[in-house]
Amino acid sequence: MPFITANQQRLYYEMQGSGEPVLLLHGLGSSSQDWPHQVSALQSDFQVITLDLRGHGQSSKPPGPYSIKMLADDVRCFAKQLGLHQYHLIGISMGGMIAFQLAVDQPPQVLSLSIINSGPHLIARSWKIRCLIYQRLLITQLLGMRITGKFIMQKLFPKPEQHALRQQGVEKWAANDKAAYVNAFKAIINWSVAVPLNNIKCPCLILTGDRDYTPISYKADYCQQLANAKLVVIEDSGHASPLDQPAQVNQALLDFLDQYDATRNYKSTAKNACT
């Protein structure tokens, strides 16, 4: 099995296809194994790389604390160890936060950002958000990963026909290391990129499920602040869009990435496409 040591962490990864590198960054409590539909769709045109972030999957699970900046630096070091000078980033939820952080910290390396059900900050400003955060932490610490997984999967996949996705999700969630999960969860709380969003110059695709945890208006607002961004709404989709609506997600990703020509010039700007 392929591993790379980055920042003294043993990171598991898989690589398929050939072409310009595309790194897929999973969300909290997930792993590299939750991108099967996207790997299948992208590998004929790109070198598709999935990895387990620190604290997840088969990668190292050191004691905390963790931070988004730390996780982003793991990815930066991982890419350097792999000999990747530039790459496209696709990130969901926490992975989207890490992608934003990399675009700020390592702009020459990031060719494009595809952000799925995520954003450039998670500030617990309201009591409602604070309560949701502490509810999740309390359930995890008191009841464990399997019960937490059941709670989360019911929200992610609420339809009767999504029973198999719910069951698979519960089993994957139960396999998480509780301490590492809590450390990663705490890393996202009150995180924010430290620069104005218009400083991020690379092309950005913002994907949001119409039933995601955060409203479409939130993504439309920060999309407008980016220098070169496009918003696409995934219909009939919750927070786990790559799994509940893979065809829509794949088409949006392929359309976006296809806009690069052989010289890596982006063929069109989409500043007016954030509504």
Automatic annotation (TrEMBL):
GO terms for molecular function: hydrolase activity. Pfam families: Abhydrolase_1 (PF00561). InterPro entries: AB_hydrolase_1 (IPR000073), AB_hydrolase_fold (IPR029058), AB_hydrolase_sf (IPR050266), Epox_hydrolase-like (IPR000639). Residues 21-118 form the AB hydrolase-1 domain. Gene3D superfamilies: alpha/beta hydrolase. Keywords: Hydrolase. This is Alpha/beta hydrolase.
